[in-house]
Design goal:
two-stranded antiparallel sheet; alpha+beta; single chain; globular
Length: 171
Amino acid sequence: RKDANGFSDEDRLVLEAFAAQAAVAIQNAKLFSSVREEKEKVDLNQIIKDTIDLLGPPKHMEISVPRKLPVLFFEKARIQQVFQNLLSNAIKFIDKPKGKIKIDCADAGAYWKFSVQDNGPGIEEKYHQRIFQMFETLGSSEEEGSTGIGLTIAKKIVEMNGGEIWVEFQR
């Protein structure tokens, strides 16, 4: 069955996924080409909501935020880029019929510790450093629609602001 524009439901899903990937690629390009923004108060609850809206996850994905996230003094576009890249990867690589992503945080005193957990296949420890390198992907970039720069950008932003980023694999 096709709609008025001649697209099937499957065609529309493919186009929506492509549009989301294109939006991420455009944001990534802007990040490296833009002048640094002024830091401002950024409500991470709104950033997460806007990011989820932008990425348009499939209906089988459940994204939860179990507690209220903090308001940070940060460059808004850059913190959104971090969460956008982390969520985009989680959405892209979940291989379960019911995808689950949880965004959480903990106040560690002098800093906040954020986590993005999912029920995807995980990343073996031997690849934990490699995934943060420019243009590195673990699968075929054509198959997965991956450029291999999202996590590199997330790492750069986090480290430019005195933080750390890492991956943990739990069976």
